[in-house]
Amino acid sequence: MECQFDRAAEDLGNVVALEHVNVTVPDQQVATIFYVTGLGLTRDPFLMTSTVNMWINVGRCQFHLPGGKPQVVRGHVGVVIPNRQALVQRLSKVRKFLDGTRFDFQEHDEYVEATCPWGNRIRCYEPDTRRFGAVTLGIGYVEFDVPPKAADGIARFYQQIINTPAEVIEDHDGRHARVGVGIGQNLIFRETDQPLPPYDGHHIQVYVADFSGPYKQLLKRGLIFEESDQHQYRFKDIVDPKNGKKVLYTIEHEVRSMKHPIYLRPLVNRNPSQNNMNYAPGFDAWTWGMPNGD
Predict the structure, then answer these.
(1) What is the percent of the chain with per-residue pLDDT over 70, rounded to a whole number?
(2) Which long-range contacts link 219-224 to residues 24+ away (Cβ below 8 Å)?
(3) How far apart are CA 106 and CA 274, in angstroms?
(4) How many CB atoms are located within 10 Å of the residue 230 CB?
(5) What is the mean pLDDT of the segment spanning 37-46?
(6) CA 199, CA 253: separation in Å to the nearest integer?
(7) CATH number of 18-198, picked from 3.40.190.10, 3.10.180.10, 3.30.470.20, 3.40.50.300
(8) Residue 195 banded pLDDT, cuts 50, 70, 90
(9) Band of residue 292 on the pLDDT scale cut at 50, 70, 90
(10) Which residue ranges make up each domain of the chain?
(11) Would you say 159 and 183 are in contact if contact means Cβ atoms under 8 Å apart?
(12) Per-residue pLDDT at 8
């Protein structure tokens, strides 16, 4: 029987989900104005509810914002946020409250780029099933600026050590390694000849199906720097498996197993268009997924 479907399109690598991006912030009130009021996201009501950390829900993903000296991703985060017009209106309204910070936003053809009060760039796209899968709200990718000629070795690192799909691509913005880290989610490592700021400790968190396989490869190369607990470990240096000596890029990875108690924890997402002046019963929550066929 002749197959009528592209079965390879359903393949998923060892990394099954990119869950959160973690950057420290010095002021929770200012962070709330940007992430909750401006972007229209939702503070997790169940975990990290004190004043030392805050978790911001983005569909099934999160931003983690513990207190501390501000950290800035060397690149940007791509998120899916519905209703571009409403997003622009919200960002316009918070400008006066964020005066004197690095906050700004610009509209582009494909996205709205918002800069947080401390310099993190968030590119906001409307839902696009071809690019991000059937989600209306979520983190689609994290793009990192990396040194010239680093993309090939980075792709090999994820292919051979993490055992997840990666390829080197050249597009209108230049050469980069693209790594699959979930359904409609990618890490992008884009080469640049611009000087990179020192790494400040920000991190990403991923879930993996084969938890012990990458661990053994990383441990053999001396790359594990934290044995967190039974369900988690961390590494931060990316090396080329061809030689394993030179560090190509540094970004901390919080690696969790699919047996981690938090894996697939339901997250609350609000409908940011609701307010006390136009309130409609039954529309408080936002559903991050699209109906089948949309």
Answers:
(1) 99
(2) 221/161
(3) 25
(4) 10
(5) 98
(6) 13
(7) 3.10.180.10
(8) very high
(9) low
(10) 18-198
(11) no
(12) 79
Helix/strand/coil for 71: coil
- Amino acid letter for position 97: F
Q: Which amino acid is at 161?
A: I
CA distance 289 to 12: 19
Global pTM? 0.96
- E strands of the chain, at which residues? 15-22, 42-43, 55-58, 61-64, 75-80, 104-107, 112-115, 121-125, 138-146, 166-171, 174-180, 186-191, 203-208, 224-229, 232-239, 247-257
pLDDT in tens, 231-287: 999 999 999 999 877 999 999 999 999 999 999 999 999 999 998 989 999 999 999
SS3 per residue for 45-64: CCCCCCCCCCEEEECCEEEE
CA-CA distance, 289 to 47, in Å (whole number)?
A: 23
